[in-house]
UniProtKB/TrEMBL annotation:
This is HR-like lesion-inducer. The keyword Transport does not apply. Keywords: Membrane, Signal, Transmembrane, Transmembrane helix. Residues 1-22 form the signal peptide. It comes from the Eukaryota. It comes from Eutrema salsugineum (Saltwater cress). InterPro entries: HR_lesion (IPR008637). The chain crosses the membrane at residues 118-138.
Length: 158
């Protein structure tokens, strides 16, 4: 059954690893296409945060943000394949930060084509986030269950 679990983790994480590999190969001197397409979405996100909270976010270099995303997906993905909770937490961090910025359906009218495309990708990203939370929960419950079994005293036979 362990091989099935490993294959499931490998297939799941392929989304992150392939994305990280593609962004790494395209990175170049300026962060590549990812940095160029992220800039307007990040600016819109900063505008929303500033409007709703009154707080100004510090300036961020898109090249650094893309490099961090590549690192989170690459390292997190490799660790996750081997069942590491740290890998799941790294992927969870990436998803939690990237999802509302990349899939900004809230910036479009419901009637627009972009709204439905971005909303679909947003919900798919939420499903990945949910799967990561499920993995972390199962990992913690198994660890907790093992500790309870070890602590329970065995009954003596008379």
């Amino acid at each position: 059954m362990e091989i099935v679990s490993f294959l499931g983790r490998a297939l799941f994480v392929s989304v992150f690893l392939l994305s990280a590999w593609q962004e790494f190969n395209d990175f170049g001197d300026d962060g590549g296409r990812s940095a160029k397409s992220l800039r307007p979405k990040f600016n819109a996100f900063v505008s929303h945060v500033t409007t709703h909270t009154g707080q100004q976010l510090p300036p961020v270099d898109m090249k650094l943000l893309v490099a961090a995303a590549i690192a989170l997906k690459g390292i997190g993905g490799l660790l996750f394949v081997f069942g590491s909770s740290l890998g799941a937490y790294l992927l969870l961090l990436h998803q939690a930060v990237a999802t509302p910025i990349l899939y900004d359906f809230y910036n479009y009218d419901v009637d627009k084509k972009e709204f439905s495309q971005l909303f679909s990708k947003f919900t798919q990203s939420l499903a990945l986030l949910g799967a990561l939370l499920f993995f972390i929960g199962m990992k913690n419950s198994r660890r907790h269950g093992r500790q309870l079994r070890k602590k329970a005293p065995k009954a003596k036979a008379n």
